[in-house]
Amino acid sequence: MAQIDDLPPLRDVIAAHDLRAKKSLGQNFLLDLNLTARIARVGGSLEGARVLEVGPGPGGLTRALLAEGAEEVLAVEKDARCLPALAQIAAHYPGRLEVVSADALEIDPGAYLEAPWRVISNLPYNVGTELLIRWLTPPDWPPRWESLTLMFQREVAERIVAQPGGKAYGRLAILSQWRCDARIALSLPPEAFSPPPKVSSAVVHLTALPAPRFPAPPAVLERVVAKGFNQRRKMLRAALKGLAPDIEGTLRDAGLEPTMRAEQVPLEGWCALARALG
Length: 278
Ligand code: SAM
Known about the structure:
By secondary structure, the chain is α/β, with parallel strands linked by helices. It has two domains: 10-208, Rossmann fold (3-Layer(aba) Sandwich); 218-277, rRNA adenine dimethylase, C-terminal domain (Helicase, Ruva Protein, domain 3, Orthogonal Bundle). It is 35% helix and 18% strand. It is built from eleven helices and nine strands. It has helices at 10-16, 33-40, 60-67, 83-92, 125-136, 154-161, 171-179, 218-230, 236-239, 247-253, 267-277, and strands at residues 29-30, 50-54, 72-77, 97-101, 117-121, 145-153, 180-188, 193-194, 201-208. The strands form two sheets. A seven-stranded mixed beta sheet has the order 4-3-2-5-6-9-7, with helices on both faces. Strands 1-8 form a two-stranded antiparallel ribbon. Helix 3 (60-67) links the parallel strand 2 and strand 3 (72-77). Helix 2 packs across helix 3 (60-67) and helix 8 crosses helix 11. The longest helix is centred in the last third of the chain and has 13 residues, at 218-230. The radius of gyration is 21 Å and the shape is elongated. 41% of the residues are buried. The model has no long low-confidence stretch (mean pLDDT 97). The site of S-adenosylmethionine (SAM) has 23 residues, from strand 1, helix 3 and strand 3.
């Protein structure tokens, strides 16, 4: 097992603080500090970086972020049982780790951390997609974060990087790829976690582009994509009925055939349609 600091091994930390994993909080811990160091490095060197980590748990990834040189880490953890273990890490890296005991869905990291920051998290699966969608749809672009390095169930990771033409392609792919470069950086088997989840996982890395790949009004794009994929087996003219008085004409104005299905429309086509509707 890698020695990245001289804090106790994670198994001992978990035993000492009685951190039995709770399913309701999506707790699947990473105990291999060699692996957490690899995740920390996915987006390149962390020297001098400010990092938001959601759900540090017993702190395996937190320790890797700090050992890899992050200047400031804001760790937001909902489970108060983890706080003593995290306080030990904070004491080991004076002035570099701030722990906030809160629900990540309820707080604004900007109240604690100066932008831009990177987000690096082994997310709780029950709130992961919701957090990603929030990060992808901020009020302004570019967002306050530079990059997102996030653990997801493999199936969700595949939806983020999916290309047109398959079942995985949908709202997540479009929102992710419209304004970010997105790639799967690592794949992890269930045994990488304690306790092991039922499915495989993957780390996705998204980098915010300075401007969208194609122009489109964000709220209209979100609405049309949500509606289009809500009835993904229907032709666009039926799935998008009611969005415009003459939806077939609007689709043609955007260069799309009204008989196409949502999963056949490339990102550029959705943006053209959002412009035609907006
Ligand atoms: N980062 C640790 C690791 O890699 O071992 C723990 C990852 S575990 C998959 C998810 C963590 O998120 C747990 O510690 C859980 O308590 C925490 N969590 C769950 N829901 C949360 C929420 N809404 N806000 C903040 N933390 C949350």
